[in-house]
């Protein structure tokens, strides 16, 4: 983080410890994947209502579904389904439903 020398980065072996420190004001923020953040922010009774997710992509990292390369039929079905969900807007609705709604 040479660009931001005043930012102190603390690494955690367990993400739960990072959220505990955030709740105790020992750190200012937690950077993690959206599904993990949603579990703590929306579904963990201990933290409900005290955190907010700021959804600003820091990378272009994408998630994948691993399929045995010999199973081309399954791969085509998965890709086709994802494309249909994306084109219809339903993929975005699912993301909002499962990761942003309380």
Structure in words:
With 102 residues, the chain is mainly α. The protein folds into two domains: 57 residues, no CATH class; 39 residues, no CATH class. The chain is built from four helices and no strands. The longest helix is centred in the last third of the chain and has 17 residues. The two termini are 33 Å apart. The model has no long low-confidence stretch (mean pLDDT 83).
Beta-strand residue percentage: under 5%
Distance between the termini: 33 Å
Radius of gyration: 18 Å
Elements, N to C (H/E): HHHH
Model regions low in confidence, pLDDT < 50 over at least 5 residues: none
Question: Briefly, what is this?
Answer:
With 102 residues, this protein is mostly helical. 44% of the residues lie in helices and 0% in strands.
Give short descriptive properties of this protein:
102 residues; 44% helix; mainly alpha; elongated
Write the layout of secondary structure elements.
Layout: H1 15-23, H2 34-42, H3 72-88, H4 90-99
């Amino acid at each position: 983080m040479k660009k931001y020398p005043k930012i102190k980065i603390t690494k955690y072996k367990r993400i739960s410890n990072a959220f505990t420190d955030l709740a105790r004001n020992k750190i200012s923020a937690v950077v993690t994947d959206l599904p993990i953040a949603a579990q703590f922010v929306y579904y963990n009774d201990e933290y409900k209502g005290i955190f907010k997710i700021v959804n600003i992509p820091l990378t272009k990292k994408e998630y994948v579904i691993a399929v045995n390369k010999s199973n081309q039929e399954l791969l085509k079905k998965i890709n086709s389904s994802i494309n249909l969900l994306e084109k219809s807007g339903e993929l975005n609705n699912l993301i909002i439903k499962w990761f942003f709604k309380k």
